[in-house]
Write a structure and sequence with these properties.
Oligomer: single chain
Largest sheet: 8 strands, mixed
Number of strands: 8
Structural class: alpha/beta
Radius of gyration: 25 Å
Helix content: 40-55%
Distance between the termini: 18 Å
Order of helices and strands: EHEHEHEHEHEHHEHHHE
Bound molecules: uridine-5'-diphosphate, magnesium ion
Number of helices: 10
């Protein structure tokens, strides 16, 4: 029999958080009086989380494990969770207890009112550096402005989705993914529920700046052509200036006024245009690289072990 709720927790070196995660989820879900499963996706942990997950899955039949062969990244771990979830409602939650498990019950309430995607909105955040807060805030707003899908701001991956939605998402096999964008893209009846995002229980963030930039690039390239259009814009802009400059320079030459003495001006113009061209090429490269990755058609993740095997 399939459970009512599937809770997916991606785990990358979270061994200290696992017992408390389990305890809090169990307590919250048992108070709902409905059936549930907890899917622990081990994203190539090296700190003993893997062994811990094996033990937990052996001790409680409601816990299912998906053990990756290496670190594939948070978004891919979520995807593996979607692929294996059996519940009527599927919840994604961080393993570090920044997303309080008790909020799942509030999300479920909205689901029972008929909403098919219930996302948790971060009304407050505790225990995070100003740099993280600032970059996150900037990121959400930038994405909101330039992507074609309206992705709710201040919203992470913490959300509940109806089975219907998850079945659609499972068909979307793109490699460079941005799950919260995908879940906005599919449509359906969506609503946000505000919550207080707590501080991380133990350990440090598994999202260093490098991974944040990668996520941002995935978000932008997956949902927008804006960067490509910027290149076009710069092209027209530079060409426009050149066209305006031609008659002016001819006029100056003919009348004998010597406003430009050559070298410095030429150098700056060449450097500027060279820079713009290289940046445009780089942007093009981002899209082409992603295209190439898709063409290879490799599996999104590799399981070394799972409860289903
Ligand atoms: N995570 C993962 N793979 C990674 C990085 C992170 O599965 O490569 C998991 C991590 O264990 C946590 C969740 O994704 O459960 C969110 O990561 P984290 O809390 O480090 O991000 P932050 O909250 O600092 O943005
Ligand atoms: Mg966290």
């Amino acid at each position: 029999m399939n459970p009512v709720y599937s809770i997916i927790a991606p785990i990358y070196n979270e061994v200290e958080n696992l017992p408390e995660l389990y305890r809090r989820i169990k307590e919250a879900m048992e108070s709902s009086g409905e059936t549930w499963e907890l899917i622990l996706v081990d994203d190539g942990s090296t700190d003993g989380s893997t062994e811990r997950i094996h033990e937990m899955a052996n001790a409680d039949a409601r816990i299912r494990k998906l053990i990756f062969a290496r670190n594939f990244g948070h978004q891919i771990a979520i995807t593996a969770g979607w692929d294996h979830a059996r519940g009527d409602a599927v919840i994604i939650i961080d393993a570090d207890l920044q997303d309080p498990p008790e909020v799942i019950l509030e999300l479920a309430k909205k689901w029972k009112e008929g909403y098919e995607v219930v996302y948790a909105v971060r009304a407050e955040r505790e225990g995070e550096s100003w740099f993280k807060l600032w970059t996150a805030s900037l990121f959400y707003r930038l994405i909101y402005r330039i992507t074609d899908v309206k992705i709710p701001v201040d919203t992470g991956d913490f959300r509940l989705m109806d089975r219907k939605v998850v079945d659609v998402l499972k068909q979307m096999r793109e490699r460079h993914r941005f799950p919260r964008g995908m879940s906005a893209w599919v449509g359906f009846k969506q609503i946000g529920v505000e919550y207080r995002r707590a501080a991380r229980l133990a350990g440090v963030t598994k999202y260093p700046f490098r991974k944040m930039v990668k996520l941002a690039l995935n978000a932008i390239t997956s949902f927008s052509y804006f960067p490509l259009q910027v290149a076009t814009f710069f092209g027209f802009f530079s060409a426009g200036i050149a066209i305006l400059a031609i008659p002016i320079v001819i006029y100056m030459r003919v009348t004998g006024s010597q406003a430009f003495f050559g070298q410095a001006t030429t150098l700056i113009a060449v450097l500027f245009l060279g820079g713009v061209q290289l940046i445009s090429l780089g942007i093009l490269g981002e899209y082409i690289g992603r295209l190439y990755d898709e063409a290879k058609g490799r599996p999104l993740y590799i399981l070394r072990d799972s409860s289903d095997a």
